[in-house]
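Following up on my earlier message about tryptophan. Here are the inputs again, as you asked, copied directly from the submission form:
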Amino acid sequence: MASAPREHWSSRTGFVLAAIGSAVGLGNMWRFSYLAAENGGAAFVVLYLTITLAVGIPVLLAELVIGRGSQQSPIRALAHFGGRAWKPLGGVFVAAGFLILSYYSVIAGWTVRYALIALGEGFGQDVAEHFSEVAVGWDAFGYHVAFMAITVFVVAGGIRGGIERTALVLMPTLFAIVVGLALYAATLQGAGPGYAYYLSVDLEKLLHWSVLKDAAGQAFFSLSLGMGAMLTFASYLKRDEHLPNSSLVIGFADVAVAFVAGLVVFPLIFALGLEERIVGSKLGTVGALFITLPQAFAEMGAIGRGVGSLFFVALVVGALTSAISLLEVVVSSAIDGLGWPRRRAALVAGGAITLLGAPSAWNTDVLGLVDQIANNFFLLGGGLGLALFVGWIMRDPIAEAAGGTEGIGWFPLWRWLLRLAVPAFLIFVLAYAVPETWEAARNLFADLLGRSA
Ligand code: TRP
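Thanks, got it. Here's what our run produced:
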């Protein structure tokens, strides 16, 4: 197949910002801080950092090495280094892209709607009822369609003209908003107990196996690992990029934004005395984000309008740059594998994913289950496959990784992590996560069947 020469990022900053854009998203601003608060505070933050460093960054580097080395989308990249037998793993990655974007975009649609409300009339006291109305049904589906349309538009614009350009503008904006909001939150009377709730150390909560599983799942989701998103972005890199440095920068930026987002959320909620709505409540992470915070913005009057607008705009920005990377996995595979032009690939893939999101748009339990299946099964399993692939199958990953660097430094340690420690850890976590997901799926189906009977 005669195809056009592969596009490349126009600058190192462009690639790094796009990769950070993939990593920083709803996962950072919505789930991380809540997990930390519920599971041991600062101790959880330390555990999370350790997993990111010892498991996340090695797998991230593995993805970057496969992508840059092969200059191909995931399915072909794996075949390039491992032979045809590895194509199915790439197929699983593409399937994961479909699945994750289908519900991610529904949540992103809620954030678009909230950003428009914040910028327009502002939040009222009735956000709770309001949320249950807009979270499902045609409303939710409509905003999901709109969000997918924007995502398709950017991806259709190509690597430089679409994805890189978007990241160069949006990521600095997002950093500025999140840091600005955290500084503002620190000035509020009564912010102190919010910090305490978020970060006070509670080792007893930390010491459960399920916490390890949650932390690992969150690390993979937040770093966009285990389904070839980072691999795909790296396939547009030239050979001179210093991959270990890039993976460290991406990893730390991701953790930093997640951490700082927690410094926004909890001080705000506690300063306004709304903590009883989230502490130990069943509202969960989604409730904290879409009900309690808007209530806080409503109470804050005029300032709340501005703060609320900035907050939800930041969420939309984070969601968009993440959704772009998810769609790009599918689109690049259709371009390389089927020989489609980029525009057609973006439209067809985007359309199919939009339809696949319908069940999530009409039922939040389905959304939650798909999220669980994606995290616990696809991402952790995909990460295991990637670690084994680079650790045992690829002929000389160290030479591949060393391109663009001087000397081999930590590379032997990296390879041994991928060979033994990372797989052992992931198998352990999967052994815990898979039965749990299976159970959740059975319950939901029993519930759905019971309801319709
Ligand atoms: N990392 C993003 C977030 O935290 C979501 C995301 C984008 C993602 N691309 C991904 C998750 C690939 C898993 C795999 O919101």
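One observation from looking it over: The pocket of tryptophan is lined by residues 22-23, 25-28, 100, 221-222, 224, 227, 229, 322, 325-326, 379 (CB under 6 Å). Hope that helps, and feel free to reply on this thread.
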